[in-house]
Amino acid sequence: MLGSLHWICASAALLLAAAVFARRKGTASHRTLGWIYVACMLILNAAALGVYQITGIWGPFHWLALVSLATLCAGMLPAIRRSAGRWQTGWLGYHSHFMAWSAIGLAAAGASQLAVQIYPNWYAVILATGLTMVSGSWLIRRHIPGAIRASRPRSAGPGPGAE
User: Fold this and answer.
1) Is residue 161 part of a domain?
2) For position 158, what pLDDT does the model report?
């Protein structure tokens, strides 16, 4: 039961993360999809913490679920705590980076799960996770700064043609 719930929420969260990254930031749909992503991540991590079928004891995947929860919280807290109507310096960068790492961590978990199904040993897990994290790091460096610039409000200065 927990394994199925974990898998369903993980699949939904991967699709939601892709949708959030593909859409314009700061919109109502961005916030709605983002909150659904957060709910899926909370459920899948809670389920992961309750699964002991592989080893029967607390193991590395339980620790990684805690890391996932920490990354998710680190991404949401700046967005929740910002003052309404004000763009405080830095909150958007923290939110963007930690949420991106949350999704990359989820993708790395999925890649390692797939890899271990094909080639069942720790080398497959390490390779799949490493490749996903390196690729994700490159994507963050390439795309997050532009997404942050594009989502900041424009100054209320004079419009085009004003002297």
Assistant:
1) no
2) 44
